[in-house]
Amino acid sequence: MSENKHVVNKSNHFDRVKTYISSKKFKLILLQVLSSLILLAMFLASITPVRYQLTVGMVPTMTIIATKDVVDEVTTERNRREAADNVQPIYVYKEGVTDQVLNKLETIHNQMVSVLMYAQTLEDYSIDKKYTPDELSYASGILTAIELREFQLNSLLHISKENLDTLFTTLRDTIKNTMQSNVTQGQEVTAINSIMQIIGYKTDVNTLQNIAHPILRAVMMPNMIINEEATEKARAQAMEAVDDVVYKQGQNIVVKGEGRIKENQIRMLASLGLLSSDKTDYATYLGGILLFAAVILLMHMLLYRITKNMQHPGRYLLVIHLVMIVSYALCTIAKAIHLNYLAPLLLTGMLLSVTIGINASLVANLSLGILVAFGLSVGGQSTTSDIVYVLCSSLLAGSVCSILLKDNIQRARILLIGALGALMSFLVILGIGIMVSSTIAVVMPIALYSLGGSVLSVLLCLGLQPMLEWAFNLPTQSRLLDLCNPTQPLLHQLVTEAPGTYHHSLIIANLAEACAERIGANPLLARAGGYYHDIGKLKRPLYFKENQIGIGNVHDESSPAMSAAIITAHIRDGLAMAKQHRLPPELQDIISQHHGNSLVQYFYAKAQESGEEVNPEDYRYAGKPPESKEAAIVMLCDTVEAAIRTLKSPTKDDIKDFVLKLIQDKMKDRQLINSSLSVRDLHLIADTCANVLYGVFHERIEYPDQQRRKKTARELLGLSKSGQSTKEAK
Questions:
Q1: How does pLDDT run across 391-412, given as a tens digit for each residue?
Q2: Cα–Cα distances in Å, from 581 out to 488, 489, 535, 574, 575?
Q3: Is 514-697 a CATH 1.20.1300 domain?
Q4: What average pLDDT does the segment 86-95 reach?
Q5: Which of 95, 107, 484, 686 shows the smallest number of beta carbons within 10 Å?
Q6: 1.20.140, 3.30.750, 3.40.50, 1.10.1760: CATH of 282-474
């Protein structure tokens, strides 16, 4: 039992998923996700930086600017090293160094005296003796505090003790004086040379060079020692004080034909991700994805509010995304050919305004304007000012065009408004350029290119609007105006084959247009709905009272059920004709909904008179209650026009009260439940209908001449006021 229940629950879950996948809501979500992914792929592709194949030593064949601020690390590091090298070492005095030097000097003196004493112990000792290698080696072993070469050792062995003592006395005094003046670390050689010069006046050259010099090199030590910690700190501070060498965004890094490419330029280009050997710049893509997500999320939130009450939101969302994708693709092409400002920035706002409406147009223009501004400027040879130019131009000029093209009827008006948008785009960029640039010469070419891009937007809008109207069967203002032309095939057929229905439709069209304009609905859609709502009567025109001119009522020979079936069939027949002639879905909705699922009262009552049990559902229209304001308006106007004929010489208040009663009846029958009409809207509709219909029913004033002609005519015919002949009256 439990297993069967689990199987049933699993089956129900699968059915719910399957139902959701086939639902309109899921399809709308899927449409938006797929469209957003396409836009995202195009956006990421557009911000991918252009990469160059460059090496050190090449002669540049193109000028490359910094796409963002970049540090010249090579030059900066060189400047810092130079600053550190220029820092003077910091010295500290070291106590006891002089004593160490003098003590070592005394040690060397004693060892050298010992060497002379050793020489004197040799049997063949003389001042000019030539010493054997063994003797020299032995003598060298006595000198542990100093190392002398062979020729230096020979010089020592040939000097007398008196001269040696004199030399050390001189050295001791001179070294002591020198150490008192301080010997800095690294300056030992300078101190030795100074001492050599001082004692050189009292010492022969051989002794000076071969004995004194080695002694000084062995004993001299600095008493001013470099403070490594303090010196390194000073060098670090000097390096930190050196500012980075920065190439600002828009500044030339490499200039075509100038010099050869250097290491610092290669390093900067690599830092910007502009070399073909570079790794992927994930930071750029991450930032792009975050920006795109924020913009698209805002766009979908706004579009949801705009389209949630539409009957065909999928079609409108598809058009919106298609226009955005096409516009972005064209902007990307402009970037690829290095003519960024020739991009058709106004196309989205203009095209959507004349096809979908102002609300969707403003939302799409805002969203695409942000994406295009960064897409054209990031990853290419552009600057931050380019982002500002593109963003302001697209948002301001695009919004102005969207607003001015609202409810546009004539296609030629696109040219005028497009010219105004182009001028505004030119002035916006020129104004911003003057504020941030030093010369007009710099910004004027940009403004002129922007002007050209706006003109391109106008031409593309004129070319793409009819294509979108045809491809998606859109009820644009110009399309509806064309459909209201009496020369349209269906209307012409209505005039010739069902003139009564055409006259009725003409009145409904006028009423519906006035009501729609009064409550802020679409007047042209309501008018077209009035024209076409009864085209299904063309199938059997003589079965409808308004076309039964000069003949009897054919329903007298039919049963109520048959008559009701024929009457209600005009909805189905009209919908079939509308689809055959490819009328917009919004008009098809008006045709199918203008009676809702209301009851055919006359034939239902006639069927009840027979005494048989009658199912009211058999006498209802097969449609559904109106789901748009325009469809509800046509329903009310159709009801009012048919019923108002029963009134005899009504006043305006009588007509309004009667219309309100008819509206209440429709509300009780729940025919207006989906129309989104407010109570205020219904009162405005009633008032408008009363104003229009009163003009039809008002009594004409008879002028005196008209009364005289009537009297003369009666006398000639021999009629009395009652209409009887005078003879009969007598």
A1: 888 899 999 999 988 877 777 7
A2: 10, 9, 11, 10, 10
A3: no
A4: 88
A5: 95
A6: 1.10.1760
